[in-house]
Design goal:
single chain; 445 residues; alpha/beta; Rossmann fold; 3 domains; six-stranded parallel β-sheet; 18 helices; UDP-Glc/GDP-Man_DH_N; oxidoreductase
């Protein structure tokens, strides 16, 4: 079986590599010549644990190749995945121009029956637009070639994408013919041997499933952050509340950790897109509008705590920031809470020294040289007035607080991810501020 994956971003590269890992012949295609040249050299455009080694292994085995030539790759493929970007427009809608351009290119080049699959996250109704592009391109050629369109949304967590693909919770496929179902069943058979379910459904339902899944997870995050903020006001401890509700199987323990808001490439974009889709069809997503509003406000909570602690006088103060990426195990800076916090600190006249294990180069695209980038977590602390923990990388979880206290100008920690023990830090003489718990140290007069 031969497949083509168009787009070598996060979804496309992981998808193509994981299919190659189970023995399928894969060509990954991108219009960016530099990106393809780098992939030939083993230089990946994204950071994802384990991916670099897997790419190298499958390229060496001849199962995985990279090209800018869409026409050549499409000629003999059985399945063509469209995995290009769908960036949000100013109104929140998903921009489909890249998806439809790829569909048009496939229609201009295909020689035999092919299942054309949207892997990108796309609004309900996109498959019909893809089908029309294919039909129009074939008509212009005067070619009578059968094809099917399918929807196969991805459910990959950045930082755990390989496991998510190879050992999926579920595989969702929207199809409109038995032939497409048979082809997709053969394609995914290697992933079903351990009992992972494949769920076939109509295409609009598959398209909706991805948006509904991400929106539900975003809702859990914003709900818990709302509860955390109320806990602080009422004197409750959100960590205890979380344990109390998480033991209810109907609620569960995942995605109920309070923090400083969600970011990344999926949740913000997908929530906006679903709100927009509903609006275009005369319906108002009231819950999701609230989810988005809470999340926007939550990204400023840590800064507000900093400002309150220092009496609003931040000019001339230095702040150490641990963590820049929107979550651990990725270099993704899209919609990262760190950007909101740092911009506000700079706007108030503060300076920032930041450290992140993998995201500092990516952060420079947004922050440039307006902050300093430390070689390690402790270098960031030198003479800083406070430490802000923004991303919960494992290496930040158990630092030597004795060293932290000596390097900081003042023993102040703002923990945006609740990874430390308030009682322990109080015992060590730190002013400790976290989310959803009253400060563990008396505020300065």
């Amino acid at each position: 079986m031969k497949i083509a994956v168009v787009g070598t971003g996060y979804v496309g590269l992981v998808t193509g590599t994981c299919f190659a890992e189970v023995g399928i012949e894969v060509t990954c295609i991108d219009i960016d010549q530099k990106k393809i040249d780098n992939l030939h050299k083993g230089i990946l455009p994204i950071y994802e644990p384990g991916l670099e080694e897997m790419v190298s292994r499958n390229v060496s085995a001849g199962r995985l190749s990279f090209s800018t030539n869409l026409a050549e790759a499409i000629k003999e493929c059985d399945v063509a995945f469209i995995a290009v970007g769908t960036p949000p427009g100013e109104d929140g809608s998903a921009d489909l121009k890249y998806v439809l351009a790829v569909a048009r290119g496939i229609g201009e080049s295909m020689n035999n029956y092919c299942v054309v699959v949207t892997k990108s996250t796309v609004p309900v109704g996109t498959a019909a637009k893809v089908r029309k592009e294919l039909e129009d391109a074939l008509a212009k050629r005067g070619a009578n070639i059968e094809f099917d369109v399918a929807s196969n949304p991805e459910f990959l967590k950045e930082g755990a994408a390989i496991d998510d693909f190879l050992k999926p919770d579920r595989i969702v496929v929207g199809i409109s013919s038995e032939r497409a179902e048979e082809v997709m069943s053969r394609l995914y058979k290697p992933f079903l041997l351990n009992g992972h379910p494949i769920i076939f459904m109509d295409i609009p339902s598959a398209e909706m499933t991805k948006y509904a899944a991400n929106s539900m997870l975003a809702t859990k995050i914003s709900f818990m952050n709302d509860i955390a903020n109320l806990c602080e006001i009422m004197g409750a401890d959100v960590n205890m509340v979380r344990k109390g509700i998480g033991s209810d199987a109907r609620i569960g323990t995942k995605f109920i950790y309070p923090g400083i808001g969600y970011g990344g490439s999926c949740f913000p974009k997908d929530v906006k897109a679903l709100i927009k889709t509903a609006s275009e069809n005369g319906y108002e997503m009231q819950v999701l509008k609230a989810v988005e509003s809470v999340n926007d406000a939550q990204k400023e909570v840590l800064f507000d705590k900093v400002s309150k602690h220092f009496g609003g006088e931040l000019s001339g103060k230095k702040f150490a920031v641990w963590g820049l990426s929107f979550k651990p195990k990725t270099d993704d800076m899209r919609e990262a809470p760190s950007l909101v916090i740092i911009e506000k600190l700079l706007a108030e006249g503060g300076t920032v020294s930041a450290y992140d294990p993998v995201a500092m180069e990516e952060a420079k695209h947004s922050l440039g040289d307006r902050i300093t980038y430390a070689k390690d977590p402790f270098e960031a602390l030198v003479d800083a007035d406070a430490l802000l923990v923004v991303t919960e990388w494992p290496e930040f979880r158990s630092p030597s607080f004795e060293v932290v206290g000596k390097l900081l100008k003042d023993k102040v920690i703002f923990d945006g991810r609740n990874i430390y023990d308030p009682a322990e830090l109080r015992e060590l003489g730190f002013a400790y501020h976290c989310i959803g718990v009253k400060t563990a140290h008396k505020e300065p007069a």
